[in-house]
Amino acid sequence: MREVTPAPRVSQLDRPDFLRRVGVGDHPLEDLFHRLMTASWGATTAFLALVFVGYNVLFACVYLALGDVIAQAHPGNFEDAFFFSVQTMATIGYGVMTPRGTAANLVVSLEAFGGMLSAALTTGLVFAKFARPTARIRFSHTALVGTVNDAPVLMVRIANERNNRIMSATARLVLLRDEVTAEGARFRRMHELPLQRDSSVMFALSWTLMHTIDASSPLHGLSPDEVRAANAALIVTVSGTDEVLMQTVHARHAYDWESVVYGARFADVFEQTPSGRVLRLDRLHTYVAEDDT
């Protein structure tokens, strides 16, 4: 019996550049909070660091433009002005360099106020990003069409990577494909694919989502080539309540039809060991062709 572990594929629907929006204008700072929340930690940290440096460079230039207004600093020295700005923004106050004159004190007050606002906004952003509930759900690299109880079934396997449980978990499987009306208009339509079991009281280990391809199924009677010609894709969504955070968590995955394998079934992910039964997540994606013996 030959087991196959496919390489991961990225669906077009999961690529950020899959569909470019035209006509909304180019405003990179629009909806900045949402952009930072969805960006990676590396990108968010780099952006905050860039803002920090730019903010202090700006005020360092202001201090230099005012002349010799920083006591204990070298006149016209950018390095001293920059680090004085850092100390002012962060309210460190080492007491070595101090503002001199009314103009400098006004600028210091303005910078301190801006620093207070930026610290509050940064703290809120970092906390919201860090505390955002996420579901560590792993999806199989492929969807399979095989035979279960003498009926063709579309299957997707998922697993909970964490040691906690997702309570009252629900799953949905949707077929997305192009359709042409009688008038010749082309539409992108979604069809719900009913699952044999679409909920789990307690999702802790693995779960195989199965849709029976019967006479009521949108896939009934269609060959693989016909489904591919319709630019079909599968979207899987899972949601539930994290028992630790007591918050709703979501996970989503998309499959292009090139990731659907016909005539196969998933290999068993449970293994009996001397220490007990274990879940082999490294076998989550492994499948076996039904005609293999």
Draw up the topology in text.
Blueprint: E1 3-4, H1 32-38, H2 41-66, E2 70-71, H3 78-89, E3 98-99, H4 102-131, E4 137-139, E5 143-148, E6 151-160, E7 166-180, E8 186-192, E9 199-203, E10 206-212, H5 224-229, E11 233-242, E12 248-256, E13 260-262, E14 264-266, E15 270-273, E16 276-279, E17 287-289
Parallel strand pairs: 5-13
Antiparallel strand pairs: 1-17, 2-3, 4-6, 5-6, 6-10, 7-8, 7-9, 7-11, 11-12, 14-17, 15-16
Helix pairs in contact: 2-3, 2-4
What can you tell me about this protein's structure?
The chain is built from 5 helices and 17 strands. The chain is α+β, with helices and mostly antiparallel strands and 293 residues long. The strands form 5 sheets. Strands 4, 5, 6, 10 and 13 form a 5-stranded mixed beta sheet that branches. Strands 7, 8, 9, 11 and 12 form a 5-stranded antiparallel beta sheet that branches. The termini are close together. The model has no long low-confidence stretch (mean pLDDT 88). Helix 2 (41-66) packs antiparallel against helix 4.
Name its key features.
alpha+beta; single chain; five-stranded antiparallel beta sheet; 293 residues; elongated
Morphology: elongated
How many helix segments? 5
Radius of gyration: 28 Å
Instruction: Determine the mean pLDDT.
Output: 88
User: What is the assembly state of the chains in this entry?
Assistant: single chain
Q: Secondary-structure element order, as H and E?
A: EHHEHEHEEEEEEEHEEEEEEE
- What is the beta-strand fraction? 25-35%
- What structural category characterises the helix and strand content? alpha+beta
- The level of helicity is 25-40%
Largest sheet: 5 strands, mixed
Our measurement of the CA-to-CA distance between the termini, rounded to an integer number of angstroms, reads 5 Å
Count the E strands: 17
Low-confidence blocks of residues: none
